[in-house]
From TrEMBL:
Its EC number(s): 5.4.2.6
Organism: Arcticibacter tournemirensis
Catalytic activity: beta-D-glucose 1-phosphate = beta-D-glucose 6-phosphate
Name of the protein: Beta-phosphoglucomutase
Active site, UniProt feature: D10, D12
Superkingdom assignment: Bacteria
Binding site for substrate: 10-12, 26, 45-50, 53, 77, 115-119, 146
EC category: isomerase
Cofactor: binding details: Binds 2 magnesium ions per subunit.
Amino acid sequence: MSEIKACLFDLDGVIVDTAVYHYRAWKRLANELGFDFTEEENEKLKGISRVRSLELILEWGGVVKSEEERSELATRKNDWYVEMVSSMDPEDILPGAAEFLRKVKAAGLKTALGSASKNSGLILEKTGLLSLFDAVLDGNSVTTSKPDPEIFLKGAEALGVRPENCVVFEDAVAGIEAAKAGGMKAVGIGSAEILNKADLVVRGLFEMSVEQLDNL
């Protein structure tokens, strides 16, 4: 039995699904560099920073680039991605996500976003969800990526809530590990087999109720 006072959410795969936009932008970049990029490879980038994602893609393609060239490539990919997410709207919110966020707020719990995406603010704005978050922590707010707990610890700090009173909602193994490393409860969104370190696993926020938080 835990006393949950705050809910911290990852963005991609939990609140919205922007994986398809990341995939299209990375694939376009890989194709321009002369090799292909598969959906299976894209799965391996879940929860990983843009810089690390690029390093992996270049490794897979057997392409060597200087630090300056890598920086330019990461920027190019991001420009394409931002262009795509700029056309997002409330239709892009995953089933049950907005409803659950409203219930969490109505119950008097605090909310924060903890996402590696540096475009989180833009996405929340486009989907009309920004007002449902008390704090937004993204890739611009931290120096280390998940599974390091930095982003969630900073989220808890921004909300003025102790880590043990927080629950994290994540769809990636690295995110669940980050939550646990930070001393928080974790709810996995996706497969129970893959997210086996989570305290509870559901298929989506449409399966969550505020009452379930009392039993974590």
